[in-house]
Amino acid sequence: MISKRIVLHFPKRLVDEPIVYNLIKEHDLKFNILKASITPEEEGLMVIELAGKAEDYDKGVKYLKSCGLKVESLSHDIRRNEKKCTDCGVCVPICPVGALEVDPKTRKIAFHDKKCIACELCIKICPTQAMEVHF
């Protein structure tokens, strides 16, 4: 059983199609929508966590791509710019899932991209704009 967080980019022509429904129905996967911005007649974006057997997951992602969706790993889209970060810690208490934390030994901020749900709260609060979204 695997679980991965991915970003789906829907082109304008597909925002009204039941693609995620078909993904779940046909490929026996469980999903959790972490973030969605889909408007009729516009492009859409959805961040989801997909879980299931590795074989089903691979077939499901292949299905999404065959429909015309761009599929990316969430960790590719949320990044911490090490050069900009001053390790001030302002982002740590605002993160609802603990993706940002202070390392007790070094007092440096650690970013755990696998925990991130792309809520973007850290983006808004970071005084040096070290957290970046590349959707």
What's the topology here?
Blueprint: E1 2-10, H1 19-27, E2 30-38, E3 44-52, H2 54-67, E4 70-73, H3 74-77, E5 78-80, E6 100-102, E7 109-111, H4 121-125, E8 131-133
Helix pairs in contact: 1-2
What does this structure look like?
The protein has helices at 19-27, 54-67, 74-77, 121-125; strands at 2-10, 30-38, 44-52, 70-73, 78-80, 100-102, 109-111, 131-133. The protein is α+β, with helices and mostly antiparallel strands. The chain has a 4-stranded antiparallel beta sheet with strand order 2-3-1-4. A two-stranded antiparallel sheet has the order 5-8. A two-stranded antiparallel ribbon has the order 6-7. Helix 1 runs antiparallel to helix 2 (54-67).
**Largest sheet properties:** 4 strands, antiparallel
How would you write the strand order of the largest sheet? 2-3-1-4
Q: Summarize the helix and strand pattern as letters.
A: EHEEHEHEEEHE
Distance between the termini: 27 Å
Question: Which superfamily, in CATH terms, is the homologous superfamily of the largest domain?
Answer: ACT domain
> Helix/strand-derived class?
alpha+beta
Q: What overall form do the CA principal axes indicate?
A: elongated
The total of helices stands at 4
What's the CATH topology name of the largest domain? Alpha-Beta Plaits
Low-confidence runs: none
How many structural domains? 2
Task: Please give the CATH class of the largest domain.
Answer: Alpha Beta
Strand tally, please?
Answer: 8
What's the CATH architecture of the largest domain?
2-Layer Sandwich
Please tell me how large the radius of gyration is.
Answer: 17 Å
Rounded average pLDDT:
88
What fraction strand? 25-35%
